[in-house]
Specification:
Blueprint: H1 2-27, H2 30-39, H3 43-51, H4 62-75, H5 79-89, H6 98-109, H7 113-123, H8 131-143, H9 147-160, H10 165-177, H11 181-194, H12 200-212, H13 216-229, H14 234-246, H15 250-261, H16 268-277, H17 281-288, H18 294-307, H19 311-315, H20 318-323, H21 330-342, H22 346-353, H23 359-377
Length: about 375
């Protein structure tokens, strides 16, 4: 009997709770609450709130309900559910055509580009009334590999929206990817001429796209033009320097790195290194003296002295190299062994060569030893 009373009590509580929940739902507009939560970015809470909505009430607004569910699912990155909810909303005649734009967005995120185009078509004039939606359509065509339609869409957008330059910029990148470099260059010129808001990043983006497509000459011309306007932009200068390195013009690249070092000191070392490669040893040493990191400075200076054949100066570095711990590095010990060999100090060279164990350096050490042995037997062979 006692157990039966307990069960009846629990059942009464359950019924009371259910009744209380219905009362709360009647008093609180859960759909409005979900919309408010969505606007505030609480998408999971909005979704849970929508789950509690009683859709069986008279004259229920299914159009708005399913649209809101689609928006929330889209925000939660559940794009398939979002499209399903939007489709349900469209079954009701009062649903705004804007829902087609939501479908296009969710479909694009699912990489269903064909559905994206279809949704934009169904949106009618809405999809053509804003420039960003026209650019969006062009990108969907591009992803479908319907390149001609993508470019035609951009051309139409350019005319419709009073020569809006963003269409030309998008077209430029498409043309580069299609390897239509001359057309891309013409597009870039038109863009630069048609907008007042060109910044250094635009020149950088255009030149980067050209260089990645192995169009170094065109990229260099683009950057040279950009540097006339944005002389202090280090990124433009460094990219241009790298392109000149690719073209084999090391001296010009070194000069550009030096120019960049006036604004950012970290490029001093690279500038010195490039002057060394360009055989401008005096200037390389001058810039090396300005390198702040001591170990990097010493390693670079040793390399410059060796290439400059200033072996006495290189030998004078031995103490500094040892003090800095660089003599613990096998490559540095081999470099100093080479310096002593070139200075006919064979015993010092042999002493350092005997400490090497790296396979590539060990092989080079054998060559040096053979050369030193020849010199000992016939000193005239070393002159």
């Amino acid at each position: 009997m006692r157990a039966l009373l307990i069960l009846l009590f629990i059942a009464s509580l359950t019924v009371a709770n259910a009744s209380q929940k219905r009362d709360i739902q009647e008093k609180v507009d859960l759909i409005s609450l979900a919309a408010l939560l969505t606007n505030d970015g609480f998408y999971h809470r909005a979704d849970n709130t929508l789950n509690d909505v009683n859709t069986s009430v008279k004259n229920f607004n299914f159009s708005y309900y399913y649209t809101l569910r689609g928006v929330v699912s889209n925000k939660l990155q559940d794009y398939k559910s979002a499209v399903d909810y939007f489709d349900k909303a469209l079954k009701y005649p009062k649903t705004d055509k804007k829902v087609y734009l939501y479908i296009a967005d969710a479909s694009f995120k699912m990489k269903d580009y064909r559905r994206t185009i279809k949704a934009l078509d169904n949106a009618g004039e809405l999809a053509s009334s804003k420039s960003n939606l026209v650019a969006f359509r062009a990108e969907a065509y591009w992803q479908l590999k319907e390149y001609n339609k993508a470019i035609i869409t951009l051309d139409k957008g350019y005319k419709r929206f009073n020569n809006k330059s963003s269409f030309i910029k998008q077209k430029f990148f498409y043309l580069v990817q299609l390897s239509l470099f001359q057309e891309a260059l013409e597009a870039s010129k038109l863009y630069l001429k048609s907008t007042k808001d060109v910044d250094s990043q635009t020149y950088l983006a255009f030149a980067t796209a050209l260089s990645k497509s192995n169009e170094n000459t065109k990229a260099i011309k683009m950057l040279e033009r950009g540097r006339l306007i944005f002389a202090s932009d280090v990124k433009l200068t460094i990219l241009l320097a790298h392109l000149y390195v690719n073209e084999g013009d090391i001296y010009t690249a070194a000069n550009l790195f030096e120019n960049a070092s006036y604004y950012e000191h970290k490029y001093t070392k690279e500038s010195s290194e490039l002057y060394r490669r360009a055989k401008a040893f005096i200037h390389a040493l001058y810039l090396n003296s300005q390198v702040l990191e001591q170990k990097e400075k010493l390693k670079q200076r040793l390399a410059i002295y060796i290439e400059f054949k200033e072996y006495d100066m290189a030998m004078a570095m031995h103490t500094s190299l040892k003090r800095s711990g660089l003599m613990d590095i096998e490559d540095i010990r081999y470099a100093m062994a080479f310096v002593y060999y070139k200075s006919y100090k064979f015993d010092k060279s042999e002493e350092l060569l005997s400490t090497l164990s790296k396979p590539d350096l060990f092989s080079k050490a054998i060559t040096l030893r053979n050369n030193m042995q020849k010199c000992r037997l016939d000193k005239w062979s070393c002159i």
